[in-house]
């Protein structure tokens, strides 16, 4: 919902803290999750992610979540689905070139990033999406990767 | 063919420290004030339509931009125009928009363009399909302007496609990107420019500038960040045909910002078209004085015939070798 996602952007800082906390909990649970089998968890995880992030951010389940690098604003709500910043068509009132009634996603992302501890991550260069990942759980994949990195470090 | 002058500066081998053999890169790196101009693509399969438009631009610019269905209106393709321009010896900037083609098509076109002798590409996101004459079309946006820059840089510098597969002879291309200092969020625009440079942009062509104070504040931030030293910035300009045309552009062309004062100046003039041309000359003279601006990019929509006069009267080419400017003289290959 448009209103909810704008509220989320305005609360980018507490949401960022929540995200960091959830990340830590996830990492702590990683061995148990691995025991269950990550493949078996894929469907419930994707369902939960779609439900929670859908309600908060209008998440489109691109499968490669970048919320924490885009001011807690889902860039997939941009009609051009731009993941590296705003196009040049933003209206003088800050609204979208395509949907005149909607605030540009990147105007919100810029404001959200300004409120965050790690807002500077907005400058990260985002690779093009892998369209095969659409609909899958980005959280689970990120968790598996981070847990794997941790194992490798040990 | 004394008329085909623009391309005579392109050479096959890049000079030391250059990425392309193109005239545009050479002019910019030598510290000269560069001029590029946009060719309005024809709705025609007749090559002469393209050549007629190129001819009137050719005397005064270092490269001609071939637009890629700008405004999401269908015209002759940028690759097609580039092929025609190169066949006649002109320098070209191939514009690539992410709206109509996916990463497979775009990378193939880049190789094709380089093989045709194109030295410059301009990486754009592209206007939305809703802005154009076929709003029901499927928008692609598989890449965005920044991932496009990064992709082509990888093809050129690493000799690899996005997939990692090797390219036998990599394309030699001078990489460009657009910037719009006149669209919100204003304080984000210099950061976005920095990101484009980090992704590989070497020259920048901006959106139309009608608001010099806004450009000044943008350029001041750009200088503070040192970005003017890592890319060549060409500011977009163009003559407005009338106050009516200006109002229409402001309302209908995405990203174009025209202050009320500009429209008032046109309305107050006896001959609006002439005033529009004079305004463009005045803007160029103001813009060239801004520290860090390295050239202008003229977009004269349906008024290409004015570009030659505008550039000459603005005086930006005054210190160029006369062989480039004088009509009917064939310049030497190394004129620049």
Structure description:
Chain A has five helices and no strands. Chain A is mostly helical and about 150 residues long. Chain A has one domain (about 1-155). The longest helix of chain A has 25 residues, at about 10-35. In chain B, about 40% of the residues lie in helices and about 15% in strands. Chain B has helices at about 25-30, 45-60, 80-85, 105-115, 145-160, 190-200, 210-225, 245-250, 260-265, 270-290, 305-315, 320-325, and strands spanning about 35-40, 65, 90-95, 120-125, 175-180, 205-210, 230-235, 295-300. Chain B has an eight-stranded parallel beta barrel with strand order 1-2-3-4-5-6-7-8, surrounded by seven helices. In chain B, helix 9 crosses helix 10 and helix 10 (about 270-290) packs across helix 11. The interface of A and B includes residues 82 and 94 of A.
As a percent range, the share of strand residues of chain B is: 5-15%
Distance between the termini of chain A: 43 Å
Molecular shape of chain B: globular
CATH class of chain B: Alpha Beta
Q: What string, H for helix and E for strand, traces the elements of chain B in order?
A: HEHEHEHEHEHEHEHHHEHH
How many DSSP-defined strands of chain A? 0
State Rg of chain B.
19 Å
List keywords for this structure.
heterodimer; A: 154 residues; mainly alpha; 5 helices; 53% helix; globular; B: 336 residues; alpha/beta; TIM Barrel; eight-stranded parallel beta barrel; 12 helices; 8 strands; 38% helix; disordered N terminus; disordered C terminus
């Amino acid at each position: 919902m448009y209103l909810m996602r704008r509220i989320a952007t305005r609360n980018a800082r507490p949401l960022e803290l929540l995200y960091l906390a959830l990340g830590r909990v996830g990492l702590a649970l990683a061995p148990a999750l691995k025991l269950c089998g990550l493949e078996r968890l894929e469907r419930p995880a994707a369902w939960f992610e779609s439900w929670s992030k859908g309600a908060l951010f209008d998440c489109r389940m691109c499968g490669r979540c970048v919320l924490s690098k885009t001011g807690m604003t889902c860039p997939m709500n941009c009609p051009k689905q731009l993941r590296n910043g705003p196009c040049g068509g933003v209206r003088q009132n800050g609204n979208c070139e395509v949907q005149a009634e909607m605030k540009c996603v990147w105007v919100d992302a810029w404001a959200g990033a300004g409120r965050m501890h790690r807002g500077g991550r907005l400058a990260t260069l985002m690779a093009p999406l892998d369209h095969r990942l659409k609909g899958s759980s980005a959280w689970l994949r990120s968790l598996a990767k981070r847990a794997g990195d941790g194992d490798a470090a040990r | 063919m004394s008329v085909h002058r623009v391309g005579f500066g392109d050479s096959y081998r890049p000079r030391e420290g250059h990425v392309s053999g193109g005239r545009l890169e050479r002019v910019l790196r030598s510290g000269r004030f560069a001029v590029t101009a946009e060719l309005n693509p024809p709705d025609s399969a007749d090559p002469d339509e393209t050549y007629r438009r190129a001819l009137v631009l050719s005397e005064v610019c270092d490269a001609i931009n071939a637009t890629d269905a700008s405004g999401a209106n269908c015209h002759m393709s940028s690759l097609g125009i580039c092929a025609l321009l190169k066949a006649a010896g002109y320098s070209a900037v191939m514009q690539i928009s992410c709206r109509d083609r996916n990463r497979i098509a775009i990378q193939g076109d880049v190789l094709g363009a380089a093989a045709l002798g194109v030295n410059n590409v301009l990486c754009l996101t592209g206007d939305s399909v809703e802005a154009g004459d076929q709003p029901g079309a499927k928008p692609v946006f598989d890449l965005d302007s920044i991932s496009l820059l990064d992709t082509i840089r990888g093809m050129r510098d690493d000799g690899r496609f996005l997939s990692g597969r090797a390219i036998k002879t990599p394309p030699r291309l001078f990489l460009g990107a657009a910037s719009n200092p006149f669209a919100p969020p204003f304080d984000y625009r210099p950061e976005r420019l920095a990101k484009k440079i980090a992704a590989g942009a070497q020259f920048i062509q901006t959106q139309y500038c009608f608001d010099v104070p806004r450009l000044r504040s943008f350029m001041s931030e750009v200088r503070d960040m040192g970005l003017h030293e890592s890319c060549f910035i060409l500011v977009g300009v163009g003559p407005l045909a009338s106050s009516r045309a200006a109002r229409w552009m402001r309302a209908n062309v995405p990203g174009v910002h025209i202050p009320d004062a500009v429209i008032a100046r046109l309305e107050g003039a006896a001959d609006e078209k002439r005033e529009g041309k004079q305004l463009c000359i005045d803007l160029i003279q103001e813009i060239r004085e801004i520290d860090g601006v390295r050239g202008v990019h003229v977009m004269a929509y349906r008024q290409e015939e004015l570009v030659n006069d505008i550039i000459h009267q603005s005086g930006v080419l005054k210190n160029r070798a006369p062989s480039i400017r004088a009509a009917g003289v064939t310049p030497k290959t190394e004129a620049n």
